[in-house]
């Protein structure tokens, strides 16, 4: 019988049929006259059995891990509980090697990942991604992006693609990557926020999924030099409505991801035995910045002082990463931390009416990660914005297009940015955001 060419994920529909599959040798084991291959093709894993009756069984003994092969045979259903993926396996009647891998250490790299030095693993990322942990992570990442887009579509936001090469900063000069742009100074974007704001009068509420770049000199679990930034901007809304929108987007996106059984299984596989991701319950807790300062002091969560000794937090302090995480882990659920002092936040943030030292700003904090979203209402008055540039020491000239928004039909508006890798670290119980990127970029690492 002729064999139909299929991908591994289709195997379940092809039980009893003769099929042809292309893939890579993920695992290899010999047991008497039988050779077991776990074949991988990106869509799944399939156990293939080569028996002594096969004309090429002898060649099979020279098979190596990570070789690419073509294999034909019949998909046999197995009794429940037999150790094979999805309770079926391919009983092979023929195979051929497409690209033979050398075998030995090189090809084994992705199977022994835990034992390797981090730098070696990072250099070998192109092989490590073939392993189950990373490939599952990347599959969930793809599902998450789809789910974000579906959530935004259902809420009526339009997707735009802003530029990555820019001449303005958004989140402070110290983390800018600068480069020469045909003789002019330019930067890799820190955030698409300013561009999204310009879209409101043209396209209505908008979102983007774009790379953002930060020259973060410190090594932390959650800082990357390049990361995927999901950002949205909405017009004619209040701060409270902005918070409700953020909650809605996150819950719809998470629900969408968990609703697909395949994705759910991948997520579960990344949690330790007996543990799993707990979807957040609504409404998210809201906590005023000043109450967070109080919380830290009441729970002995200190702040590192300039002389090396730790001390209590005072209003006006930036709550450092460690303190923020300690508080979030103690509380153990998502927190909207709101109303930060203006001195520690970005120049464009709207002040709280009647409480001008503070801003209509929000950080969404998640257990195990800390801040995953930063957002705010934006200043809508022209004079106020000009004053803010001055206070920040920003030359307003290159910002003319941003300033113009306050001239041609200004409105109350607000938005936020979400770090995709941080959301994934929360969802997939990863220790660092680096594990959730295809080829992570951080201090000292720009390859592969
Ligand atoms: O809090 P941030 O700096 O806010 C902004 O960029 C706003 N302009 C966004 C907006 O309002 N449109 O960054 C937003 C989020 C953070 O909460 C964090 O999740 C992520 O981006 N982020 C990083 N993720 C990984 N590595 C870094 N170095 C990051 N810096 C920020
Ligand atoms: Mg922030």
TrEMBL record:
Belongs to the class-II aminoacyl-tRNA synthetase family. This is asparagine--tRNA ligase. It is an enzyme of class 6 (ligase). It catalyses: tRNA(Asn) + L-asparagine + ATP = L-asparaginyl-tRNA(Asn) + AMP + diphosphate + H(+). It is found in: Cytoplasm. Its main location: cytoplasm. GO terms for biological process: asparaginyl-tRNA aminoacylation. GO terms for molecular function: asparagine-tRNA ligase activity; ATP binding; nucleic acid binding. Residues 138-440 form the Aminoacyl-transfer RNA synthetases class-II family profile domain. It comes from the Eukaryota. Keywords: Aminoacyl-tRNA synthetase, ATP-binding, Coiled coil, Cytoplasm, Ligase, Nucleotide-binding, Protein biosynthesis. GO terms for cellular component: cytoplasm. Its EC number is 6.1.1.22.
């Amino acid at each position: 019988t002729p064999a139909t060419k299929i991908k591994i994920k289709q195997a379940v529909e092809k039980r009893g049929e003769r099929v042809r599959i292309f893939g890579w040798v993920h695992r290899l084991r010999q047991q008497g006259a039988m050779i077991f291959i776990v074949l991988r093709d990106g869509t799944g894993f399939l156990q293939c059995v080569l028996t002594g009756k096969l004309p090429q069984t002898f060649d099979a003994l020279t098979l190596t891990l990570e070789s690419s092969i073509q294999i034909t045979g019949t998909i046999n259903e197995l009794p429940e509980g037999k150790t094979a993926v999805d309770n079926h396996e391919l009983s092979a009647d023929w195979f051929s090697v497409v690209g033979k891998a050398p075998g030995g250490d090189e090809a084994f790299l992705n199977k022994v990942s835990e034992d390797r030095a981090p730098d070696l693993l990072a250099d070998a990322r192109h092989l490590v991604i073939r392993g189950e942990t990373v490939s599952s992570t990347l599959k969930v990442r793809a599902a998450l992006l789809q789910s974000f887009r579906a959530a935004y579509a259902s809420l009526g936001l339009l997707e735009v693609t802003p530029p990555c090469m820019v001449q303005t900063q958004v989140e402070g000069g110290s983390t800018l990557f600068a480069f020469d742009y045909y003789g002019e100074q330019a930067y890799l974007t820190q955030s698409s926020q300013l561009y999204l704001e310009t879209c409101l009068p043209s396209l209505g509420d908008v979102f983007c999924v774009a790379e953002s770049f930060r020259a973060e000199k410190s090594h932390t679990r959650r800082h990357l030099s390049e990361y995927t930034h999901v950002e949205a901007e909405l017009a004619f809304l209040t701060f409270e409505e902005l918070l409700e929108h953020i909650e809605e987007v996150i819950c719809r996106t998470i629900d969408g991801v968990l609703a697909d059984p395949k994705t759910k299984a991948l997520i579960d596989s990344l949690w330790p035995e007996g543990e799993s991701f707990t979807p957040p319950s609504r409404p998210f807790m809201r906590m005023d910045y000043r109450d967070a300062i109080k919380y830290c002091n009441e729970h002995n969560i200190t702040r590192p002082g300039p002389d090396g000794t730790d001390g209590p937090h005072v209003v006006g302090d930036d709550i450092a990463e460690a303190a923020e995480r300690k508080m979030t882990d103690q509380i153990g659920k998502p927190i909207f931390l709101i109303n930060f002092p203006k001195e520690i936040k970005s120049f464009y943030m709207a002040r709280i009416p009647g409480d001008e030292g503070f801003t209509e700003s929000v950080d969404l904090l998640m257990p195990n990660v800390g801040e995953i979203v930063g957002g705010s209402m934006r200043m809508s008055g022209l004079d106020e914005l000009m004053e803010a540039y001055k206070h920040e020491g920003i030359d307003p000239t290159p910002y003319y297009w941003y300033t113009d928004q306050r001239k041609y039909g200004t409105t109350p508006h607000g938005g936020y940015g979400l770090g995709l890798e941080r959301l994934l670290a929360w969802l997939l119980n990863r220790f660092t955001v680096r594990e959730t990127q295809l080829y992570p970029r951080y201090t000292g690492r720009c390859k592969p």
